[in-house]
Amino acid sequence: MEHLETNFNYEIMCFFYKVRDFFSSPLNILKEADIKPGYNVLDFGCGPGSYSIAASKVVGENGRIYALDINPMAVKKVKCSAAKQGLSNLKTIQSDCKTGLPDGSMDVILLYDVYHDLYNRLQVLKELYCILKPEGILSFSDHHMGMEEILSEITKNGLFRLKKEHKKTCSFVKT
Fold this sequence. Notes:
A 7-stranded mixed β-sheet has the order 3-2-1-4-5-7-6, sandwiched between helices. It is globular. The protein has a single domain (25-174), classed as 3-Layer(aba) Sandwich (Rossmann fold). 41% of the residues lie in helices and 25% in strands. By secondary structure, it is α/β, with parallel strands linked by helices.
């Protein structure tokens, strides 16, 4: 019964993401992250993958998207969506923190609407710091948090500093 309830809750969440994406296109949000063809991008806490799929199309065949989520249903959904769309540049990772990606390998990391749910925030930020290139961007958004809280949370450990506040996201860079 618990498995059925978990699946039902996940499907409800996916429905709300579809509604969100209808009113606010993932591609428009990703423009604020300044993703370019050929980039390596991590979508941390990818959920059903709307940003991962959109970013996969932006980076093209020479780029790579890594879609990470703790939820096995999310990972499976992203894999299926990528396969249906023939997106060979998208790889999935099931984890709550460790990415398994090489240090300094990511041009952009997307941390959208997941930070408030993390129980290991500092460990996640340290992991993202390590895998982000020196000139890379941590693109952040979390509608559960106010701007002051976002700035405090992301910068308080001295790993990141605000580069730019956009309409829907904030861009942080390594300190």
